[in-house]
Amino acid sequence: MKFSERLALLMAENHETKYRISKIVGVHQSTVNYWLTGKSVPQLEHAKKLAEHYGCSIEELLSNK
Fold first, then answer.
1. In whole angstroms, what is the distance from residue 60 CA to residue 44 CA?
2. Cα(33)–Cα(4) distance, rounded to whole angstroms?
3. Measured distance CA(64)–CA(38) in Å, rounded
4. Cα–Cα distance for residue pair 59/40, rounded to 1 Å
5. pLDDT tens, position by position, 32-50
6. CB 22 within 8 A of CB 32
7. Distance between CA 63 and CA 29 in Å, rounded?
């Protein structure tokens, strides 16, 4: 599963919006949109915040398995 798919799934499971994720991570909503469309992946510091928020490791979050 790609990062974009994993993030979309986690967001859906937790009923979260792009706005909420942008505030948690500290980025603009358009950045979250780029992640969700697969145009980019988060920088390490943002991936760490996402992993902490979802209770998983950075490796689990970013892996293509």
1. 13
2. 9
3. 12
4. 16
5. 999 999 999 999 999 999 9
6. yes
7. 23
